[in-house]
Amino acid sequence: MKLADAFSFGIQALTGARSRTWLMLLAMAIGVASVIILTALGEGARRYVANEFSSLGSHLIIVIPGKIETTGDSPPLIGGTARDLTLDDALALERSSAIQLIAPLALGAAPISYRQLERDITVMGSTAALMPVRNLELARGKFLPEADPTRESAITVIGDKLKKELFGNKRALGEWIRIHDRRFRVIGILKPLGESLGMDIGDIAVIPVASAQSLFNTEGLFRILVQAEGRESVPRAKQAVIDIIKKRHDNEEDITVITQDALLSTFDGIFRSLTYTVAGIASISLAVAGILIMNVMLVAVSQRTAEIGLIKAIGGKREEIMRLFLIEAGLLSAAGAAIGIIIAYSSIWVMGQLYPEFPLIIPLWSLASALGISLITGLLFGILPARRAARLDPIVALAGR
């Protein structure tokens, strides 16, 4: 029997039992779609986190007050309070040639009001360096000017959401607002940037760091953001930060220094492992689909004994009978995989419309894996029914027993 005839025979066998065929196609399609969708979600989560960290700035080093001992590779995210970081500590870091910019951060919550409107917001105290370090952009006006960071100034830059809530469609630049018990003049409006690591940039007010320290009655800093001269300078800049602060803090290493690359690689590894795990779990559904194909085809063999006996009676060999059933299983797997891919792409397109900020991308390896596993599963579980059909005695089979 020619290969083309074998394929034609397999297609006729599948179309002749439509209910059985659709049942097996559905099982395989669900398995393939599950693998692709779950891996796309895992890859999307990994890219989303990568984008979040990229929005923080480039070649970034975060200095946190307090030392945390860690085990494993995961960097600490929250510092202790052994000793405060001060503005003088931050300014001392400018001595290192590996460091390009320093942005001290004083953070707190305070009520903000304009005429009769009032609400609580996050107030961030920093310097002019915060804008390039954090990749902030202005919609209108200007950012904090280059000035002595130890001097207070009654100016502020506000987020776009805060501007809309306080001023609506009215002009905000040049207006005076009250933060806690002090008045600040609005000199700039930030561009909409959305949330970054849990902080809504559109809902903050940025004021000079000395003003923030005075407002919150503290000399300590929340963080110091350091931008290295380049990617290759990050290790040198990190060591310079540790050495300078240690020298200023009586030879005690009481800070936690986190590099952006370390954070990104940690989360990247976590989400890659998660993606592979969910892909493996989803692949189990392909095994279930293969078992269904095997069981249904075993039933089909018992229902088609007369047909098999006729083929053997006119000279059909065992190998040809096996090939017929394996081709049928392969066609089922290929068609089911194609339907599963269509379902997966359609589902991801719908999710992309509902959540446009979440990057849903199907990795090529998951597509290839889903196709490969579905074909291998179908053929593997099709071997038993094929062997059973090939071993039938032609006389007994013709009798329909």
UniProtKB/TrEMBL annotation:
It is found in: Cell membrane. GO terms for molecular function: transmembrane transporter activity. GO terms for cellular component: plasma membrane. The keyword Metal-binding does not apply. Coiled coil: none annotated. The keyword Ribonucleoprotein does not apply. Residues 21-242 form the MacB-like periplasmic core domain. InterPro entries: ABC3_permease_C (IPR003838), MacB_PCD (IPR025857), Macrolide_Exporter_MacB (IPR050250). It comes from the Bacteria. Keywords: Cell membrane, Membrane, Transmembrane, Transmembrane helix. Residues 281-394 form the ABC3 transporter permease C-terminal domain. The chain crosses the membrane at residues 21-41, 274-301, 322-348, 360-384. It is a multi-pass membrane protein. PANTHER family: ABC TRANSPORTER PERMEASE YTRF, MEMBRANE COMPONENT OF TRANSPORTER-RELATED. Belongs to the ABC-4 integral membrane protein family. This is FtsX-like permease family protein. It comes from Sedimenticola selenatireducens.
